[in-house]
Amino acid sequence: MGAKSRQIIALGGGGLGSDPGNTALDMYILAQAEVARPRICFIPTATGDDPTYLDRFHTAFSRYDCDRSQLLFFDRTPDVRSAILNQDVIFVGGGNTKSMLAVWREWGVIDLLREAWDAGVVLSGVSAGAICWFEQGLTDSFAGDLAILDCMGFLEGSCSPHYDGEADRRPSYHRFLKQGDVVPGIALDDGAAGHFVEGQLHRVITSRPNAGAYRVSSNDQVVDESPLEVEFLGNAEA
User: Fold this and answer.
1) DSSP string for 177-200
2) 10-residue averages of pLDDT along the chain (238 residues)
3) What are the domain boundaries of the chain?
4) Virtual CA dihedral for 190, 192, 198, 199, nearest 10 degrees?
5) Is 202 in contact with 186 (CB distance < 8 Å)?
6) Catalytic status, residue 162
7) 195 is a catalytic site residue
């Protein structure tokens, strides 16, 4: 059997049981592992390991035939290398991206995630867990206005989640592009996910019929926002 492809699935919003009765994105992520009973690890660092968020993950994925675990950093932290590399899927939760990346650097997580990616572990996440894989992301980590944050750079370009779900996302992304503060990238509505294979956008899938995704760039202070083809997965239920 050949080596597994390197995959990243970035969700603009949704997943983790956020849409009652609609499990399409969660099921899609698990399916990409291509094993009978995938091992999935949830990393909720961006919320400070919030137990409510952790419960939400376990509730959402308890309906599937998978082995669930979590990697926590604000209690006694386990062997991080083993926790990351002994998985088929990693799912990173939303929250404060800047604080998450700071904790990850201290624990050597970024290098381990890259090693897992190279080994064929499916990397995924929502919001903070989506933008973290790119060179830059549009973040609400800071009080006040949205800001641009340098991220891990597994994927080229920038990313904005919640493109239709938060009123200031689109105008802020456009403003930063016009100012030259952010490199071109992809914008993801809530319910839309970009599936990248070997660093290239493979497809955009959605769990909501009107969710979209866009290539966004700027030239001479004019923003070009080009809709991407999307594939509606339907309102799948486990």
Assistant:
1) HHHT-S--EEEE-TTEEEEEETTE
2) 86 87 92 97 98 96 96 96 98 98 98 98 98 97 95 98 96 96 97 98 96 95 95 76
3) 7-232
4) -50
5) no
6) yes
7) no
Q: Of 132, 174, 137, nearest to 154 (Cα)?
A: 132
Q: What is the pLDDT of residues 40-89, one digit of tens each?
A: 999 999 999 999 999 999 999 999 999 999 999 999 999 999 999 999 99
Q: Per the residue annotation, which of 124, 158, 160, 162 is the catalytic one? A: 162
DSSP 99-144: HHHHHHHHHTHHHHHHHHHHTTPEEEEETHHHHTTEEEEEE--SSS
Catalytic residue (one of 124, 127, 158, 172): 127
Query: Which pTM does this prediction carry?
Result: 0.96
Fold classification of 7-232 (topology level)? Rossmann fold (3.40.50)
